[in-house]
Amino acid sequence: MTLLCDELNKIRGVECVPEVAMAPYTSFRIGGACKAFIRPFTLPALEEVLALLDVQDVPFRVLGRGSNLLVDDSGIGPVICLDHLDSRPVIAGKQDDSTFIVQAGAGMRLQALIAWTLKNSLTGLEPLAGIPASLGGAICMNAGANGISMNDVVDELLLTGPGGSSWVAASEIDFSYRSTNIPEGCLVTGARIRLRKGSLKRSLKKIRSVMKKRCRTQPLGKANAGCVFKNPDEGPAGSLIEQCGLKGLTVGKAQVSRLHANFIVNLGGATSTQVMDLITIIQEKIKTETGIELRPEIHIWKERA
Ligand SMILES: Cc1cc2nc3c(=O)[nH]c(=O)nc-3n(C[C@H](O)[C@H](O)[C@H](O)COP(=O)(O)OP(=O)(O)OC[C@H]3O[C@@H](n4cnc5c(N)ncnc54)[C@H](O)[C@@H]3O)c2cc1C
After folding, report:
1. From 62, 110, 178, 231, mutation site for ligand 1 pocket: most ligand atoms within 8 A of C-beta
2. Which of 20, 65, 216, 290 is the most buried (most CB within 10 A)?
3. Which DSSP letter does residue 229 get?
4. Average pLDDT value for residue range 231-244
5. pTM for this one?
6. pLDDT at position 3, please?
């Protein structure tokens, strides 16, 4: 991998560092080292990186803000971090008198984008306030809250692969509950979203109520990765876990949150093995007691075989 990093570092606008600990790059604060941490600073640099990895047949993963990830303790392969592809939002067009198209880089923080929309008297993203995501990660996960998800606002995506970048209509992508069918090896590098003219006062009021609810219901003071399981058709995963008496269950330093049972919190120094053990215990107990199979919402990154 040092050889690969040497080659990648020759590309203008790319930084590649071998053996970088992943824990600081995840909201869980868990995970071993990745073999190469690749940071492109421009889109052309990213395109060159992808072409080189493709020619050498090197598999890689894409990192947004790391807020929905559990990274294996024993480390993973190369990671491309998009935090510098965060071009500032611009109004790229108008659909009608009150609907604007805003374009931004995928590495931008969703919360920074929401702040920008407020400054520009645009409305539409307020229900998503408080989701710790990059714009690209939010799109890939089809993140949502308070009745909306990203597919309600995304108009077009900039997809980048080894062959270059192209804009794709959101209607061509299959957005489902907390997932999309964006092809593996394709990165979301930009997005155009639809927003309406709004009132700052009303937007602030909405954001205050959304944030108040988050602070009341989520264990924000402890490292976590958001909801661990997708809600099954039968109801919220958190309620099922709570009804089965698993709130507060602890393995090592990983604990089922006492505040919100669909969150696992890192009490300090938890390992991915401890979190995985807890996930397995929860799944088995829920299956035995209710017959329901809980599926993880978080993405679990292990070294590929
Ligand atoms: C406290 C807390 C609260 C949360 N609340 C919510 C909530 O209310 N609603 C909700 O939906 N989620 C919530 N989450 C989960 C998380 O914030 C979302 O899933 C978010 O969309 C993840 O974005 P990210 O940039 O951190 O992606 P990451 O965690 O870095 O990556 C997630 C997946 O997306 C892929 N990916 C990321 N960026 C790209 C890209 N540009 N191109 C291609 N693939 C990419 C990654 O490879 C990975 O598979 C919460 C998390 C926390 C910690």
Report:
1. 62
2. 65
3. B
4. 97
5. 0.96
6. 87
What is the tens place of the pLDDT at every residue in 149-206?
999 999 999 999 999 999 999 999 999 999 999 988 899 999 999 999 999 999 999 9
Statement: residue 305 has pLDDT above 90: no
* Radius of gyration of the CA atoms of the chain, in A: 20
For residue 146 and ligand 1, the question of a CB distance below 6 A is answered with no
Alpha helices in 126-199 (DSSP H): 135-140
Please determine, for residue 1, whether its predicted confidence score (pLDDT) is greater than 80. no
Nearest-10 Cα torsion for 183, 188, 189, 191: 130
Backbone angles phi, psi at 21, to 5 degrees: -65, 130
Instruction: In whole angstroms, give the CA distance from residue 243 to residue 87.
Output: 45
136 lines ligand 1 (CB under 6 A): yes
The CATH number for 221-301, chosen from 3.90.78.10, 3.40.50.720, 3.40.50.1970, 3.30.420.10, is 3.90.78.10
pLDDT tens for 261-280 read: 999 999 999 999 999 999 99
Determine whether 118 is exposed, middle or buried from the number of CB atoms within 10 Å of its CB (0-12, 13-18, 19+): middle
Sequence-ordered list of residues with C-beta below 8 angstroms from that of 82, at least 6 positions apart, any chain: 40, 46, 62, 63, 64, 106, 107, 134, 136, 187, 189
Which residues have a catalytic role annotated? Answer: 178, 227, 297
Among the four given CATH numbers 3.40.50.300, 3.30.465.10, 3.40.190.170, 3.40.1110.10, the one describing domain 90-216:
3.30.465.10
